[in-house]
Amino acid sequence: MHGVLLPRLARASDVATWTAVLLAALLSATWAPAAQAATRAWLDRSGVAAGEAVTLNIETDQAGVAPDYTPLHADFVLGPPYRSGAGGNGGRLFGVALTPRRTGALAVPALRVGQERTPPLVLRVAAAAPRRAPAGEVFVETRVDDPSPYVQQSVGVSVRLHYATPLLSGELTQDAPEGASLQRVGEDVQSSREIDGRRYHVVERRYLLVPERSGPLQLPPARFRGEGAAGFFDDFFGTDRKLEATGQAQLLQVRAQPDGAPQPWLPLHGLRLRYLSAPTQARAGEAVEVAVEAVAQGATAAQFPEIPAPPVDGAQVFAERAEATERFVDGSPQLTVVRRFSVVPLQAGALRLPGVRMDWWDTAGARARQERLPELHLDVAPGAPGTAAAADAPPARAGADAAPEPGDAAIVSGLSTPALAPGFWPWLAALFGVLWLLTLGWALWLRRARYASAMDAAAGDHPSARPRARPALVELRRTLDAGSFDEAVALLRKMAEPPAADLDEVLARLADARQRQALEAMRRALWAGAGDPSAARAQLRAAFREGPRWTASTMPADELLPPLYPQGPRSP
Hints:
The radius of gyration is 34 Å and the shape is extended. The protein contains nine helices and 30 strands. It is of the alpha+beta class. Strands 1, 3, 4, 5 and 6 form a five-stranded antiparallel beta sheet that branches. Strands 21, 23, 24, 25 and 26 form a five-stranded antiparallel beta sheet that branches.
């Protein structure tokens, strides 16, 4: 939060009001991260040709969960799923390559991820364009999202390597052109594609190109150098398996910045603003949160200006740092920015918040545009006692005792309570003395108790040897209803006697087959992606409704192992 310069106040009510304003703003900034979205899903492109693959990305902040991809098998061929801990806002990122089984508008259904579901998506699948398969077993394609960009416009460049034979090694390079910057973004995306009856593996690499001057701009061709896997006859006849491919150079016509374009210069394919949280009621002296989201097509976080804080008459506005997420969608960069504002009304009544406005340049329509949000109207109720505005405070009592001196002493005297009786302070000092003596006595008693406990442990009565309090059944039921699978396993480990080391030991010591099957089902659903996590949780609740059923043996885990040398029957 930015620092706030407070003017010198001369009345106690003003000091109290501004103190409450700052405390409320600080509290709202502390609570703001809890309002972030939990689970999101998106496709790396909204349309593909038949035979091409698209990547479904899922980001969640839930621990110990995995998406259930079962509903996708009806319309898609799934590639191997992947998992990464590098999602935005500290979340987990899951992904899987989807190859459509047919053309048309295919629905990507909502998928269950732990306790939540992803939003449904739509993928447009067009018929494959007829083309003759290129000569050789490897070739390179290069695509740009805008062949006639403006200066300082972000241009998405996609380089696709197609190969029909297994590769032992290879290097794909793309040189930067003169008069522009070229930066690689994201990780390579792997898929497959069928061309004239031949199956090609595809590796797509993405770049961000930013022209620095107007005029013609030539993007050098991408190059591949590698070595394919040799077959039996290749080894027999000594065939060279080195592979080379060179793509086509791309010629771009860069347009200059138009005269009279809005500043700061922001060329985009599209811009959308919306409220994530828009309150309608508030209290004087208490902060409310207004969250604004901006989705910019064709921009990066470095190019996008800061979402401005709305000027509000009769309130203080504290802006937080923006949260930015960069993606590559339909071959173009896409930026999502979320910024939160804490609005603290200073008095009761009607409060108007102007809508956020942002000027940008439409690259497709070649014209200036403005995106704005509607204004908000808040009904501000009077503040709680102690946070009322200065106008509601009663006038100060006249007299020499109440007249404040100018300067900093006025603030200190204004914060003081009414005059106390002259004999109050000795009694207050005596009370603090008694409390200090009681605290000292309690500390001495606690020290003696610890010393006696240590002596008991030395004599063989160590607290660790006493019976251990195990978790109750009600705690296990509560965890199975609202907690995570890891928390449930931790409770089961503690409930075992002696405690179990891990989940495998819990499974080995459970006597009920239904309980073992329920734990295995939940583990497969969460960690292997096989099954429905919600159904597995229901099965787990039913199996452990009456608590875990352990085997009859209560020996330690080390003594449960079979002897190294089994003893034979004794001879008479």
